[in-house]
Specification:
heterodimer, A: alpha+beta, Ubiquitin-like (UB roll), Fumarate Reductase Iron-sulfur Protein, Chain B, domain 2, 9 helices, 5 strands, B: 526 residues, Flavocytochrome C3, Chain A, domain 1, FAD/NAD(P)-binding domain, 2 domains, seven-stranded mixed β-sheet, five-stranded antiparallel β-sheet, 19 strands
Chain lengths: 223, 526
């Protein structure tokens, strides 16, 4: 192995060794050594979940998970992009659901089988307490589950580690959607405004406004 | 230019003074002068004349002009043009606008194919942080929203497009909420609203600082639930016409480089923005695929562009640490008190000015030697974030801006304790393909929704109007194409426009070998 210098670190990308500059992300390291990355790349801002990655630090027994656009290279790190693998995504129609609690087990029967190993939470690059989220959903606390899954980027890293085969991120998304559709108070101010617009409340002012010149519009104060 | 550690101390030391300091808004003439002197849109040497096509004689930046005049990756003699897919509606682009258009058309009975370059949802939408502007509160009206946006856009917005945007805002928000999108609420159950630069009333609906992620997650889930036909890793590379109308498109399967021919009664381009062209060398807040693909293909086929010379440089892109240079630091932080501070510990602009003015002010500070230099040689000024907690109470950053706290914590920067260095980042294409109120371009049956379109935002988009734009115009395009299905037949598929384009190139003496769309930026070390 080549010696590490002050500005270069030794890394292993999908089993192959390279030296790359320190201070760059795993994705940037792939570009540096010549990889054209089209699968396993998306927003490059840590919110799209495309660059889910397995990595191991030098000397560690631990296989860790993260986002390749967010992790920095370090001496001895070894990593592989996950790219894509099949995740079960049950298809459901919100307007066909009458009881969200029953629907959860209809679409995700495995959600009741969590064995509390916490591997999902440990795998989450967003530090979500996935296990608690699954339990909350299973007990019908969709509000609690929603709050926990807020930062979920749907990277799927919680899925392959689950010994109960739960598509945990999908359970999180389902929980958030049913929370919104079935349990949140309807925003009355918004509904009121849409009705006002439909009833033509602003029509006369629009008429006045659209007849004005640019100069008049610059100083126009709305009623 | 000052050293990073030393100037950070100076910035922190001036906090108590700055906190009570009032910084008036600029007079209109002073604001114009600042923008004209420092905004990148006014840097003449970055621009050139477009030589051919519907906007010949007008100007845009070199990076875009080169792509507009470039050659197609598809041979004009490509034969046979037998369709692999025959659909009512082809939606190109899997971001917020594309997903919305596809869902709307599907709900109205259309047979929809959604093709996208990366995965469904890989788009700028997912990265939007600040929110979506909708005039809902009692002391606000769609008219106010209209005027704010018009003034923010330097009065160059298309009035008809803008009226539709603000009037359909509330129903667009309701559509999202009815699908289960969770916007932040007040204690009384009503929607919580926050202010944004250039807006006279608080009207930003948001989901913490994950607004775009929340919207895109739900839209994507719904596209899958509605079983809309999906072609991922299949970007558009050319349009098809019958000489008068858009009749389909040629896609490229990135796995095997094979071309896919789609015959469609209508095509909706929702190909998004331009950030990855790194105009004028700027870093960008955009996703990896934001290479303006829709513009050159629509242009070659004869669609007119509008305001193709104006871009938004978001005032606060991260300037440090280097791996996240260009990453967005949400404007919402300034709405709740974060201040911009130069190397001398001084404020220099009212933080709630419109984005073009704030970005110009930051560039001016750095150009005049009051900026800070990073170890990689970038320039920037401080954004004092701990002030947000000081003003609004401990824990505000952690609860309202969890994404920002997390992003910086990955690099051992605790934004609750220290300011961050920022510099303008290429964020948005203000103009684009010209559309009417149904989203139709000047090429019949070619519709455009979202950032690829132009006219709604004038010369400067207000914060929160883009998430609104993609939903309102995604829905309008989806409705318009659905209404047309029964009245339209599948038409002839030709590439005749490419021969005409080649002729125009030859006549104008264009010999460039550049091919567009480029699909991806080239960051690979070769």
């Amino acid at each position: 192995m080549a010696l590490a210098t002050e500005n270069l670190v030794n890394v292993e990308i999908m089993g192959k060794r390279y030296q790359v500059p320190s201070g760059i992300t795993l994705i940037q390291a792939m570009w540096h050594v010549g990889h054209e990355v089209t699968r396993g790349i998306g927003c490059l801002g840590g919110v799209c979940g495309a660059c889910a990655t397995y990595y191991r630090k030098e000397g560690s027994y631990e296989l860790k998970t993260g986002l390749a656009c967010q992790l920095l290279v370090e001496e001895g790190i070894s990593f592989s992009l996950l790219q894509s693998f099949p995740v079960r995504k049950p298809v459901y129609k919100m307007d066909e659901i009458s009881d969200p609690k029953k629907a959860l087990f209809q679409y995700f029967p495995e959600a009741a089988l969590c064995r509390n190993c916490n591997a999902c939470s440990e795998a989450c690059p967003q530090d979500i307490d996935v296990r608690t989220g699954i339990w909350k959903a299973a007990f019908g606390d969709f509000k609690g589950a929603s709050e926990l899954f807020l930062p979920c980027v749907m990277c799927n890293l919680c899925v392959p580690v689950c010994i109960a085969e739960i598509s945990s991120n999908q359970v999180g998304l389902f929980s958030r959607r049913v929370q919104g559709v079935f349990f949140e108070q309807k925003p009355l101010d918004l509904i009121f405004r849409t009705e006002e617009i439909t009833a033509g409340k602003y029509d006369s002012e629009w008429k006045r406004l659209l007849a004005l010149s640019k100069e008049e519009l610059e100083v126009y104060s709305p009623s | 230019m000052s050293d990073i550690t030393e100037s950070k101390e100076i910035a922190i030391a001036s906090r108590s003074f700055r906190r009570v300091q009032t910084m008036p808004l600029l007079a209109s003439s002073a604001k114009d002068a600042l923008i004209h002197q420092y905004h990148p849109d006014y840097k003449k040497e970055a621009y050139r004349e477009i030589k051919i096509g519907p906007n010949a004689g007008e100007k845009t930046v070199y990076e875009l002009a080169n792509l507009l005049e470039a050659q197609s990756p598809v041979s004009k003699n490509m034969l046979p043009l037998n369709p692999d897919y025959l659909v009512d509606v082809l939606v190109i682009g899997g971001g917020g606008a594309g997903a919305t258009a596809a869902l709307t058309a599907k709900a109205l009975g259309a047979n929809v194919l959604l093709a996208t370059k990366l995965r469904l949802g890989d788009a700028n939408t997912v990265m939007a942080e600040g929110g979506m502007q909708v005039a809902i509160s009692k002391d606000d009206t769609p008219i106010r929203h209209y005027l704010d946006t018009l003034r923010g856009g330097h009065m160059e917005n298309d009035p008809a497009l803008l009226k539709v945007l603000v009037e359909e805002g509330p129903s667009a928000a309701k559509w999202l909420i009815d699908m289960g999108v969770l916007f932040d609420k007040e204690e009384d159950g009503n929607l919580s609203m926050r202010g944004g630069g250039g807006s006279s009333k608080p009207r930003l609906l948001r989901c913490k600082d994950y607004t775009g992620l929340e919207m895109m997650r739900v839209l994507k889930d719904e596209v899958l639930n509605q079983k809309i036909d999906l072609l991922e890793f299949s970007p558009v590379v050319e349009l098809l016409t019958d000489g008068e109308n858009c009749t389909g498109a040629v896609l490229k399967n990135l796995d095997n480089d094979r071309l896919i021919v789609v015959s469609a009664k209508s095509v909706i381009l929702a190909t998004g923005g331009i950030g990855r062209l790194h105009i004028q060398g700027f870093p960008t807040s955009n996703h990896y695929g934001a290479t303006a693909d829709g513009l050159p293909i629509a242009y070659r086929a004869g669609a007119k562009l509008t305001l193709q010379d104006t871009f938004q440089y978001h005032p606060t892109g991260a300037a440090f640490p280097e791996p996240i240079a260009g990453m967005l630091v949400t404007e919402a932080l300034r709405s709740v008190g974060a201040q911009l501070v130069n190397a001398n510990g001084e404020r220099f602009i009212n933080e709630m000015e419109t984005r073009d003015a704030v970005a110009s002010a930051v560039i001016a500070e750095c150009a005049q030697g009051r900026g800070v230099t990073t170890p990689s040689g970038r320039k920037g000024v401080w954004l004092d974030l701990p002030l947000v907690d000081a003003i609004n109470g401990e824990g505000t950053l952690a609860t309202r801006f969890p994404n920002m706290v997390r992003q910086f914590s990955r690099y051992q920067i605790d934004i609750r304790k220290e300011p961050v260095l920022i510099y303008p980042t290429l964020h948005y294409q203000n103009g684009g393909i010209k559309i009417d109120v149904n989203g139709e371009s000047t090429l019949p049956n070619l519709f455009v929704a979202g950032e690829a379109s132009g006219g709604i935002h004038g010369r400067n988009r207000l914060m929160g109007n883009s998430l609104l734009d993609i939903i309102v115009y995604g829905r309008r395009a989806g409705r318009a194409v659905s209404e047309r299905i029964s009245k339209t037949d599948f038409k002839k598929l030709t590439l005749n426009h490419l021969a005409q384009f080649d002729e125009a190139r030859a006549k104008a003496g264009i010999t460039s070998k550049t091919v567009s769309p480029i699909l991806f930026p080239d960051y690979v070390n070769r």
